[in-house]
Automatic annotation (TrEMBL):
Gene3D superfamilies cross-referenced by the UniProt entry: 2-enoyl-CoA Hydratase, Chain A, domain 1, Lyase 2-enoyl-coa Hydratase, Chain A, domain 2
Classification via CDD domains: crotonase-like (cd06558)
A Pfam family annotated for this UniProt entry: ECH_1
Keyword Lipid metabolism: yes
Domain of life (superkingdom): Eukaryota
Keyword terms: Fatty acid metabolism, Lipid metabolism, Lyase
InterPro entries, per the entry: ClpP/crotonase-like_dom_sf, Enoyl-CoA_hyd/isom_CS, Enoyl-CoA_hydra/iso, Enoyl-CoA_hydra_C
GO cellular component: mitochondrion
Broad EC category: lyase
This protein's name: Probable enoyl-CoA hydratase, mitochondrial
Length: 304
């Protein structure tokens, strides 16, 4: 199935059949026409496990699209995901990206059927799952819009994103212990930073699922959005659009300094933040942003 054979049920109702979600130049509102247009487009790579669209000119939406397996993260899916996100990251017209799954599952984890017969020599020699970390090296913000199951690698994937929005239906968890293993995509480490040691230990050792409300109360997700199919995706796209209206340089700098707090002591982090802050005074966007404030007008950032 090609990338743009969009399954309407995966896309918020209000965004369905809008030409902008598929392409800024799609000629028709009908699914058949959109599909025909996108299938015939040679400029876009063809994906089997994900859908890539532009709900706004400056926002790329990547939708995991392996519904029968609840978006289990098989290796080819992750390869496509890395490729699509890295392309969006390199595209100057893109300000932020959104990653989502279906209403039933953001992603139910790494593909257990793919993993079950693997041997130690194989996974070690071939650095199994190491390419998952590429998402954490994107320069631009990536917002996770999570509905349904986000388990194991699915929870880890959400944690790799810069911001997580959850629908009330979201169910998170690190159930690897039930499979005789432990998280391998960063869950144990990133969860500690997000929710603390005791909760992380409980979740990793029991495999218990936790709700969107718990994730929000613990500070793992920034908020739980309203009920309704596609609401969380709409909210994430609005947030991505808002971020895209800022200076890309300042946004990149903001992401870099916030992430640095994971790695540095407070003193190192404060020094790093100050240096990056100072550096922004060498940009046109700092001049424009402050001049616009003084002149009581909207800033027109040039990302330079
Ligand atoms: N890998 C491969 N296939 C999966 C999968 C996974 N992680 N999760 C679900 N599927 C498949 C099922 O095998 C099933 O396929 P078939 O129809 O071919 O049998 C299909 O998706 C639908 O799943 P269920 O019938 O199980 O759906 P359900 O609604 O009854 O249950 C669920 C949903 C609770 C999420 C259940 O599917 C489940 O427990 N999935 C596994 C969750 C899990 O253990 N994730 C961790 C994986 S390990 C990992 O991620 C390691 C790491 O750290 C990187």
């Amino acid at each position: 199935m090609a990338q743009f054979m969009a399954r309407p049920s995966l896309i918020p109702k209000s965004l369905r059949f809008s030409p902008s979600i598929y392409s800024r130049t799609a000629p028709s509102y009908s699914l058949r026409a959109v599909t025909r247009f996108m299938s015939s487009s040679t400029s876009q790579p063809s994906y089997e496990y994900i859908l890539v669209s532009r709900p706004e000119p400056s926002v790329v939406l990547v939708t995991l699209n392996r519904p029968k397996a609840l978006n289990a993260l098989c290796s080819p899916l992750f390869k496509e995901l890395n490729q699509a996100l890295e392309e969006a990251d390199q595209d100057d017209s893109v300000g932020a990206m959104v990653l989502t799954g279906s209403e039933k599952a953001f992603a139910a984890g790494a593909d257990i059927k793919e993993m079950k017969d693997k041997q130690y020599a194989d996974v070690y020699k071939n650095k199994f799952l190491e390419d998952w970390g590429r998402i954490a090296h994107l320069r631009k913000p990536l917002i996770a819009a999570v509905s349904g199951y986000a388990l194991g690698g699915g929870c880890e994937l959400a944690l790799m994103c810069d911001i997580i929005l959850a629908s009330p239906s979201a169910k998170f968890g690190q159930p690897e212990i039930n499979l005789g293993v432990i998280p391998g995509g960063g869950g144990s480490q990133r969860l500690i930073h997000a929710i603390g040691k005791s909760r992380t230990m409980e979740l990793v050792l029991t495999g218990r699922m936790f709700s969107a409300k718990e994730a929000s109360d613990w500070g793992m997700v920034s908020r739980v959005v309203g009920e309704g199919e596609g609401e969380v995706v709409k909210e994430a796209i609005n947030m991505a659009k808002e971020i895209s209206g800022k200076s890309q340089l300042a946004v990149q700098a903001g992401k870099e300094v916030v992430n640095a707090a994971y790695e540095m002591t407070l003193a190192e982090g404060l020094r790093f933040e100050r240096r990056i802050f100072h550096g922004l005074f060498a940009t046109n966007d700092q001049k424009e942003g402050m001049a616009a404030f003084a002149e009581k007008r909207k800033a027109n950032f040039t990302h330079s």
